[in-house]
Request: fold
Amino acid sequence: MKRAYLIQDGGFGEIGRRQYLNRFLLNGKKIIAHQKTEEFVNALRIIKADVFQPCFEKELSEKLLIESEFVWENMRDISSNQKELWADMFMTRFKIPNGYSYGQHCLDQYSVAYMPFAQPSLLRLLLALNPRLNKMANYIDQ
Reply:
């Protein structure tokens, strides 16, 4: 099949703004240093509606905690003293591969997709920024 479309996708721009991790960053150093999985999950979780039966919700929550334990092993190379870098690397290591990869193959059949905010060169620049500039994209005004 001939691909005739190009899609420029703004996905992952939130990594540069760190917008989804503000609650985590409030207690991030303590959570990272003590590897407090439940506090980590709760800092990331946003509950918009109770859509599951309580017994199923409990089972899902327990499995989420078990699956989230492996984050500590994959993030051990970043110090708890660098909570902003830790948060950015968490998004880079876990959100990019898990956020779009399952559906991307469908788009690839019809178009070429370009995601500027997921490019390694841009991610390296964002990760090197002073954490104060990176907060909610303050670097744009600089």
